[in-house]
Amino acid sequence: MAASSKIMLLNGPNLNMLGVREPALYGTDTLDDIRANCLAKGAALGLQIDFRQSNSEGELVGWIQSARGDHGGIIINPAAYTHTSIAIMDALIAAELPVIELHLSNPLRREAFRRHSYVSEVARGVICGFGGHGYELAIDAMARIINDAGDGA
Ligand code: DQA
After folding, report:
1. Is the pTM value of this prediction over 0.90?
2. What is the pLDDT of residue 68?
3. What separation in Å is there between the alpha carbon of 49 and the centre of ligand 1?
4. Which CATH superfamily is domain 6-65+86-140 in?
């Protein structure tokens, strides 16, 4: 499979707790359920989804660095690091790949401290507020970006 059809899909801290973590906000699907849907969605679109989760900022930075030259794009739900991590933002810039920011909830409807995203500064676009379905929407959007390289929209 060509490098560009491999998509890194990263999940930040506490997303391993999906299913039991604040289900009214984040839904009842587990991260394993979401992973299975993402792999199936990717396969239908000819994309290999490299789905990972970490509670560690450094591990996420390392994975973003490793995507450079090896993956065609990065979809990231940075979870709380969205609002705090210049390190993740800098790593995404250095990767020189299309980035889609993703959230289950809509952070703009929540507490004021969630209204700023370092990742939005470098993301092509943001998908939020659609729960687990947002992951499939993000894969669709990334497929379009990769198949239509040069679309600077
Ligand atoms: C989240 C939103 C973040 O504000 C929060 O810290 C999360 C999850 C989401 O998917 O809705 O952990 O990224």
Report:
1. yes
2. 97
3. 21
4. Dehydroquinase, class II (3.40.50.9100)
